[in-house]
Amino acid sequence: MSDTTHLHVGENTQEHIAFKLLEVVASVEQKNLFHYEGAPEKTPTREWVLNTFAECLQAARSHRKWKKD
Fold it and tell me: Model's pTM, two decimal places?
């Protein structure tokens, strides 16, 4: 038998989970990620998208430090 490397691409990756979380955060914060016509939401800045995705990725990887309210 030969050694093979398995690449898992799809809905179970941490990156995909982070993106789905980004969509939820954007919705809650009323940010329009996809520029739907007539959408009342605000268009997020590039900085907001990248920073929020980075935070979501940290959360998906269980590396995010949580703030206590």
Answer: 0.71
